Amino acid sequence: MKIGITCYPTYGGSGVVATELGKALAKRGHIIHFISHDLPFRLREFSENIFYHEVSINDYPLFLFPPYSISLASKIADVMCYEELDVMHVHYAIPHAISAFLAREIQRDRASLVQRCKEAKIITTLHGTDITLVGADPSLSGAVRLGINRSDGVTAVSKYLRDVTVQDFKPVVEIRAIPNFVDTTEFVRKDDCGRFRAAFAPKDEKLLIHLSNFRPLKRVGDVIRIFHAVQERVPCRLLFVGDGPDRPEAEKLTRELGLSDKVRFLGKQEAVVELLSISDVMIMPSENESFGLAALEAMSCGVPVIASRIGGLQELVCDGKNGYTFELGKTDDATTQVCALLENDALYKRLALGARQTAEQYDTDKIIPLYEQYYEEILAASLNKI
Ligand code: GMT
């Protein structure tokens, strides 16, 4: 198949999923056209089946806000037509679902002037805050619903997100839940990272890790409060990976609690596998999480996850199997869970193994065929309509 993919190319779960999906589909022989304003950050290696089309943004002085959504729509329309795409798959509804819809209108309109182009089927994948936070805002919700309803197929990254979308947006189309996935051959615990570990935990302390984009919904303050209590019982250190708006506040709280020598803020990092490989426990106290890709990647590296009992995290983190869940904001409960894990070797080993086994259920090789099958169903459904 010829498949177009649009996503946010910068750090963020939806961009990661879209890019890894494109790479995996390309390996399976499909031709992939990425369309975005920058090269997706995980698209490093060359593949003869992958092409990249950059959206040029018109920053005419009159525009206070250059109309990216429209430029993107024009680019998608061109790629759909000239590359004869079968499927145009957009990730994160805002504005991508609307841009894809507009692209199809552009293409239809152009057909009256030039040649008639083949029409690609539009598939939208909902990732999380495009429904639960940003998309729920009245300034955008009508457009999000239109984008969903005008897509030929819609997927959500968990059953939770599918159900919330149905409940809040009452779409007229069906939504298929297809979960996040991980390449368990790439995300595998590396044994040769002892040097890193010694740098961060020189006295052989335990290592806790939190990885996110530091937005308020990630509740990084809770991570620090949990760590503060844990380190009073178990010698340990904390690694923060990522960056975002709440980082300065988190650094301030770390100083106020006198934890500066035990907490390292590493900022954005590419060596995620190496960092997970030296970590003992991941802490994810998010207020909302439609799936929790970072937790899945941690599990794949044999790191148990302590997470809030919310959203799609409840489909991934199973108490006593691959980690523990705690009621949102109840950092005392999370502290007890982390300590129980770190103080009991046998329990720790069992959960670390359980984490890896869970990740194997979400391996790329198991989930990518679900997308392929979905594309085929959508294409077949449209043939039946003709
Ligand atoms: O909303 C975000 O945090 C960003 C979003 C994205 O688009 O990058 O992440 C979401 O998508 C990931 C991949 O599908 C999910 O694993 C994350 O759980 C989800 N984040 C939230 O729902 C908060």
Question: What do these coordinates show?
Answer:
The protein is an alpha/beta fold. It has two domains: 2-181 and 364-385, 3-Layer(aba) Sandwich (Rossmann fold); 194-361, Rossmann fold (3-Layer(aba) Sandwich). It contains 15 helices and 13 strands. It has helices at 13-27, 68-82, 93-111, 129-132, 141-149, 159-169, 194-200, 220-230, 247-256, 272-277, 293-300, 313-316, 331-343, 345-361, 364-385, and strands spanning 2-6, 31-36, 50-54, 87-91, 121-126, 153-156, 175-177, 206-211, 236-241, 263-265, 281-284, 305-308, 323-326. A seven-stranded parallel beta sheet has the order 3-2-1-4-5-6-7, with helices on both faces. A six-stranded parallel beta sheet has the order 10-9-8-11-12-13, with helices on both faces. Strand 6, helix 6 and strand 7 (175-177) form a beta-alpha-beta unit. The longest helix is centred in the last third of the chain and has 22 residues, at 364-385. It binds ligand GMT. Ligand GMT binds at residues 12-15, 17, 92, 127-129, 157, 180, 217, 288-293.
Provide a concise account of the structure shown.
The chain is an alpha/beta fold and 386 residues long. It has two domains: 2-181 and 364-385, Rossmann fold; 194-361, 3-Layer(aba) Sandwich (Rossmann fold).
Question: CATH-wise, what's the superfamily of the largest domain?
Answer: Glycogen Phosphorylase B
Low-pLDDT windows of residues: none
- By oligomeric state, this entry counts as single chain
Query: Percent helix among the residues?
Result: 40-55%
CATH topology of the largest domain: Rossmann fold
* Major beta sheet summary: 7 strands, parallel
User: What is the CATH domain class of the largest domain?
Assistant: Alpha Beta
Proper CATH architecture of the largest domain: 3-Layer(aba) Sandwich
Tally of individual domains: 2
Number of helices: 15
